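Q: Structure tokens for this one, please.
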Amino acid sequence: MRRNLPRRWACLVLGGALLMPYMMAGVLVAGMWHGGAADLLMPIQVGVFVAVLPVVALTGLFLPVRGLEVNAAQGLLGARVETPPRQSRRSWQERRRTAAWFTLHLAVGGVVSGFTLAVVPFTAFTLVLPFLGEPMPVLGVTAEPGWPSVLWSVAGVTALALLVAVAAGAGALLAALASPLLGPTPAERLAAAEEHARTLAERNRLARELHDSVGHALSVVTLQAAAAGRVLDRDPATARTALAAIEQSARAALEDLDHVLGVLREDVRGQDVRGQDRRGGDRHGEDPDGGRRAPQATLADLGTLVAASGAEVRQEVGDLSGVPAVVSREAYRILQEALTNAIKHGHGPVRLAAAVQGDDLRLEVSNPGAARDRGRGGGRGVRGMRERVRLLRGDLRAGPDEGGWTVSVRLPLRSSP
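A: Here is the predicted structure, written as tokens:
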């Protein structure tokens, strides 16, 4: 309390300073109303003070004072005020709460500032009275030398102590009310929670994409590099094919990595985490460097994916042109992860099937391989596939099947209630 008192007192004085224009205008109006000359330096009058408070509340509804008051509450009062999220339009609930705080700050600050301007000089004057040695007028009473002057000094010190107590109490009151009145409204908290949830969902989606694309590329690079090293001397043609697969996989992974990092980066144009420019841009538009980000891969890129893998893949792909774009993108990532696991843990040729059956998209990736080897990679792949399938309200089955491993997926092409 003692450490915060000077700063809280300064906040109260700031409220009194903000009240002064209202008081000066009130005194001027009062002087014109009564037909007399207005003295702008006259002491604070209770009537004018009470009359200007509704005006303070009214202006608090429309003036953008919330930022100023939040900074004053945090920096001077030491209150913990959660910074409210920025809204395109101010709600009336927020306006009313801000006006209530603004009025309270100026009212309490005006009273404390007025008493500060009166009590501090009074105390200083009474402390020097015993040393003057001659009668002096104090508040309309003549203070005689001797003990009467000492009693006035005691009265001055007492008044100062009361002023300090009042300032401490007023500062504590404002600090306690700062968070309820200046903090986010329930609507703002809900909007912030929804925005946070969207941000987390988007970051999780980007993390899955990064895991699938880069993980697939690293698996291909590792296996193809090992194969190229084994046949480099006796079969240069096979080694060149493996190196070409490594180059293609690495290039695709770099493009996906650049896309994800471009979405996550908060550039100078004010793009948010969802990749949407706050002024209406799209994340597939130009990036801050003037280029265009690569579009996300879809089922139309299956041929490139299989070619880059360098594995023996038997494709059974039907007509996928009618698959919605969202389903196509997620299906591509699912097949990419399933193919990565097949290459990493299995052996022999891989069977990849994708076809539209009725209102569903059916995907299947299978190959020979021991089931016990599938859990050695950390388990993120299958879990990521399940998350994608669940978001699209589909079904996934991944497990051993006739001595091998099969990933079977059903994705509805249309949403259902």
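A few notes: The longest strand covers residues 360-368. Residues 266-293, 374-378 have pLDDT under 50 and may be disordered.
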